[in-house]
Specification:
This protein has 85 residues and is mainly alpha-helical. The chain contains five helices and no strands.
């Protein structure tokens, strides 16, 4: 996945993972605790994932939510930290 489509795909996956963990980026932005640079960094980390299909499966299996991101998630530590707020 390269170019804009790759970025958009991983942006969607990263946002879905955050939502699955209970992270509300809009609220964090309003509080000044999340900026666009950090968001772009998260998407770029996600783009380095070697198995986005596994992410799709995890998200489908956890539509009701999850306490932890899967071990292979390149944003695991960051998203879990944000979810704990």
């Amino acid at each position: 996945m390269t170019g804009t489509k790759g970025y958009e795909t991983h942006e969607r996956l990263m946002n879905r993972m955050a939502q699955t963990l209970g992270v509300d980026f809009e609220e964090l932005k309003q509080r000044g605790q999340c900026d666009e640079g950090a968001m772009e960094n998260r998407v770029h980390r996600c783009m380095g994932c070697t198995d986005p299909e596994a992410c799709e499966v995890f998200l489908a299996d956890h539509e009701a939510g999850a306490e932890f991101a899967p071990a292979y998630c390149r944003n695991k530590t960051d998203l879990e930290r944000l979810a704990a707020r």
